[in-house]
Design goal:
This protein has 266 residues and is of the alpha/beta class. It is 33% helix and 17% strand. The protein has 9 helices and 11 strands. The chain has helices at residues 13-28, 45-54, 69-74, 143-156, 163-170, 193-196, 198-204, 235-252, 258-261; strands at residues 4-10, 35-39, 57-60, 97-101, 105-107, 121-124, 132-139, 189-190, 210-212, 224-225, 230-231. The strands form 3 sheets. A 6-stranded mixed β-sheet has the order 3-2-1-4-7-6, sandwiched between helices. Strands 5-9-8 form a 3-stranded mixed β-sheet. A hairpin with a 4-residue loop joins strand 10 and strand 11. The chain starts with a strand and ends in a 5-residue tail after the last helix. The structure holds uridine-5'-diphosphate (UDP) and manganese (II) ion. Uridine-5'-diphosphate binds next to strand 1.
C-alpha cells in the first residue's frame, strides 16, 4: 500500500478557515488521498472540532519562528516568520509521499498525479522564477530531512525570513537540476499573475489546477455580501474568489460555531 497525503498548516483560526475550504476543494475534486492539517496550540477548541470533522488527521505541532525580523520587514510581511512551522511536515513519517498546500490555496481540478513527482517538486515563483514558490510542493517525509532543515535554518537562516527562502536554499539544485521537479505553473497560479500577464491567464486559465491567493488580502478577509452571496473583488480575481466563497458558504459557514462566524467576510 502506498501511503500518501495532502498536508496543510494553520497556526490560528483565521488560516483554519482557509484550511477548511481547501479540504472541501480536495473532496470536490474527487481526490483519492486524505488531507492532514498541522496546527499549533493557538487554534481554538471549537475550530479543532471543525478541522477534525473534515481532515483525516489533525496534528498539533510547536511554533517554529525564524525570528528574522529584518528580512521579513524587507518583504513587508512581519507575520511570515511563523511559516517556518511548515517544516514540521517532514515529520509526518507515517506517509511515504505528501503534497504540501498552503491554507490560502484552492484545488480547482483533481491533481492526484502530483504524487507521481519526486521531492522537491514545485512551481516557479512569479517574483523570481529561479526560485520555487513554497505554497505547493511535493515532498517525502523524513525525520532526517527535518533535523537537517532545522540545522540548516539555525546556521544559515532564511534569505527572505520565511520558509520559502529557507527551502530554496536547502533544495538549491531545483533551479538547474531535474526539470521533472519543475511543476507547471498551473499547479500554483499565484493571484499576482492575473495582473502581470493577463493575456496568458485568459489563454490558459481554464486549465488551472490550483489557485494560490498570495499576499495579505486572503479570501476570508475579503468583503462578502451575504445578501447577494457575492464577493467584492477586482474583476480578474472575482471568479476565483467566488469559487472559494461558494465552498465556504455551502460547506464551512453552516458548520461554524456562532462565535467563529465573525472571523470571515466582514
Ligand atoms: N500560516 C499560518 N499562520 C500564519 C501565517 C501563515 O498558518 O499566521 C501558514 C498558512 O498555511 C499559510 C502559509 O503558512 O498559507 C504561508 O503563509 P501565507 O500563505 O500567508 O504566505 P504567502 O503565500 O502570502 O506568501
Ligand atoms: Mn500562501
Amino acid at each position: 500500500m502506498t501511503s500518501r497525503a495532502w498536508v496543510t498548516l494553520a497556526t490560528n483560526d483565521s488560516y483554519s478557515l482557509g484550511a477548511l475550504v481547501l479540504a472541501h476543494s480536495l473532496r470536490r475534486a474527487g481526490s483519492a488521498y486524505p488531507a492532514v492539517v498541522l496546527i499549533t496550540p493557538s487554534v481554538t477548541d471549537p475550530m479543532r472540532d471543525r478541522l477534525n470533522a473534515v481532515f483525516a488527521n489533525v496534528v498539533t505541532v510547536d511554533v517554529l519562528d525564524s525570528g528574522d525580523a529584518a528580512h521579513l520587514a524587507l518583504l513587508q510581511r512581519p507575520d511570515l516568520g511563523i511559516t517556518f512551522t511548515k517544516i514540521h511536515c517532514w515529520n509526518l513519517t507515517q506517509y511515504e509521499k505528501c503534497v504540501f498546500l498552503d491554507a490560502d490555496t484552492l484545488v480547482v481540478q483533481n491533481c492526484d498525479e502530483l504524487f507521481d513527482r519526486e521531492e522537491l517538486s514545485a512551481a516557479p515563483d512569479v517574483g523570481w522564477p529561479d526560485c520555487f514558490n513554497s505554497g505547493v510542493f511535493v515532498f517525502r517525509p523524513s525525520a532526517e530531512t527535518f533535523s537537517s532543515l532545522i540545522t540548516f535554518a539555525q546556521e544559515r537562516g532564511s534569505f527572505d525570513g520565511g520558509d520559502q527562502g529557507l527551502l530554496n536554499s536547502y533544495f538549491s539544485d531545483w533551479a538547474h537540476g531535474d526539470i521533472n521537479k519543475h511543476l507547471p505553473f498551473l499547479y500554483n497560479v499565484t493571484s499576482a499573475a492575473f495582473y502581470s500577464y493577463l493575456p496568458a491567464f485568459k489563454q490558459f486559465g481554464q486549465n488551472l489546477k490550483i489557485i494560490h491567493f498570495i499576499g495579505a488580502a486572503k479570501p476570508w478577509l475579503q468583503h462578502f455580501n451575504w445578501e447577494s452571496r457575492s464577493v467584492d473583488a477586482p474583476e480578474h480575481l472575482r471568479e476565483l474568489l467566488q469559487l472559494w466563497w461558494d465552498l465556504f458558504v455551502s460547506q464551512v459557514h453552516t458548520q461554524l460555531d456562532p462565535s467563529m462566524s465573525g472571523v470571515a467576510g466582514n
